[in-house]
Amino acid sequence: MRILSTIFLFFTFISFSQNIESHQWENRILVIYTADKNSKELENQLFILSKNKEELLDRKLMIYSFTKNEFRFQFEEYWQKSTIMDKRYIDKKQAFKIFLLGLDGEVKLKQTSVVSSEKLLAIIDGMPMRKREVSNKN
Fold first, then answer.
1. CA 91 from chain center: how many Å?
2. What CA–CA distance (Å, rounded) separates 63 from 92?
3. Is the pLDDT score of 93 beyond 60?
4. d(Cα 90, Cα 4) in Å, to the nearest integer?
């Protein structure tokens, strides 16, 4: 129940066309918040991630980028409208935030700067469920 509460605290204020909760136990989620969809941080972050699409797919990582009023999934070109239900979770002092959620829905990383592929992949590879995935493949 605590896991779902954590997810709701961060994400119930956005109405995504695809429900983030549907990813629990299936996918890891990288949520990128930006105050400006044309920000250099978002552009840089997506560029870094796009160079590692195969690795991200192998690690079951889904990416949501969102602003106050819009969102997009993975590397889609077009933004879709979203509805904000609760603005108190958007920190007006931080124009850029990243959250990494594990398969269990728990926050594994939270930071306010662009994350390198190496750091992101290392965090995921260090997760117990990821280690099991790798050992099951072998």
1. 17
2. 22
3. yes
4. 19
